Hints:
Elements: H1 10-26, H2 32-40, H3 46-68, E1 76-78, E2 87-94, H4 98-110, E3 116-119, H5 128-133, H6 144-152, E4 156-159, H7 172-190, E5 196-197, H8 206-212, E6 218-219, E7 224-225, H9 233-246, E8 249-254, H10 267-279, E9 284-286, H11 289-301, E10 303-310, E11 313-319, E12 331-336, E13 343-347, E14 350-351, E15 354-357, E16 360-365, E17 372-376
Parallel strand pairs: 2-3, 2-8, 2-9, 3-4, 5-6, 7-8
Antiparallel strand pairs: 1-12, 10-11, 11-17, 12-16, 13-14, 13-17, 15-16
Helix pairs in contact: 1-3, 9-10
Amino acid sequence: MTSISRPYSWSAFQLTASRFIRSWATGSPGFGYIDLLRTRAKSHTATLMKITQLVAIVALLTFASAQAAPPDAPSVRIAKYKGDRAAALSYTFDDGRRDHYTLVYPMLEEFAFKGTFFVVGSTVQETDELAAAAPVGSMSGLSWGQVKELAAHGHEIGNHSWRHKNMKLLDDTELHAEIDMCDAAIRDKVGVVPVSFCYPGNSRDDRVRAVVLQTYVAARDFQTEIGTETYTTDTANAWADKNVATGGWGVAMIHGISTGYHPLSSPDVLRNHLAYVKAHDSSIWVDTFGHVACYNAERDSATIQNVTTLLHGVRFVVDGTRNAVPYTVPLTIVVGAAGTKGVKATRAGVALPVVIRGTDILIDAAPSAEPITLEWK
Length: 377
C-alpha cells in the first residue's frame, strides 16, 4: 500500500483560504475562478453573483479542510501479554519424569500448547532403554534423546540443577557447579541454551538467587502446584479464571501425573483442564516459562516513541533502549483504529504480522530503532 501524502499543510491551507476570502470580499483580481464567476455573472444581479461566489468558497473550504486538517492521533501501546490477552499461563514439569514424555507431551501437542520441562542433569539417561528401565516414578525416567525431541517440538528445556541438592546449603563453588554442569549438559545433549532455572525443592535465598540470575533470564520464584490425588480439574480451572480476572501470570508446578511425587488421581484431571484453557484461548496466553519471562522483561524495558500521524495510518518506534535487555522477543503493539479494514504493517520494507481485532490493530514486533509504518483503509 502506498502512503498518501497530504497536498497542503495546515498553515498553507489557512493562507490560501484567507486570500480567497479577501479576494471575494474586495473584488480584487488574483484568482482565476473568481474572475470567471465575475465575467459570467455580468448578466445577473449582484446578489446572485455574491451567492454563487460564496457557494464556491464553501466548497473549496470543505475540500481543503478534509485534505489539510491533521487527523486525530490513534492510541499506541504495548500489550501486557501476547495477543493483548488478559492473562498468561505457563505449565512447568519438574525432575524429568517418565510421565512427562509418555503422558504430558501428547497432551500438550493435542492442544498446541508449549510447556517447560526442568531437568536434573545427572539423572537424565543416555538411552531410551535405560530410561525405560528406571524405577517407576523416579527422576530418571527420561533420556537425552527424549528431551531433545521435546525441544525440537518447541517445548522449553530448563535447568533444575545437576543433582537436585538444597542450594542454600551449598558453598559458592558447589553452587556454581550445580548450575554450570546441568547447563553444559543441556547445551551439549539437546543443542539449546537454557534461559530459565528452577530451584531444587524451591529452596533459595538472596545469595542463591543472585548467582542464578547472573546466567538466566528468570528463575521460578512463584508457582501454584497442580498435583496430589485430591486435586481436581475444577480447582485448576478456578486458578486459570483467577489469573484472567486479575491480569496475572500463573505458573503451574507439576511433578508426577500417574506415578511419582504428588501424582494426580487420573491424567484426565490435567487433560480436561488443558481443554478448558484452550476453550478460553482469546483471553489466556499459554507459553513456556522462559518465553513469558522474556516477554515481560522486554515489555517493561520498551516504550513507544516518535508517534507520527499519517493521513491513513501512523508511524512509531518501539524503543527498547530505556533498560536494554540482552534478548529480543516479539511484543504485541495495540493501535486503536476503529472502522479500519485492510491494514499493512512494515518495518524497513519488511511486512510484520498484523491483525484487526474489534476496534484495535495488533502488530507483533520486537523493539528496534527502525520505525514501524502502519497503513489502513
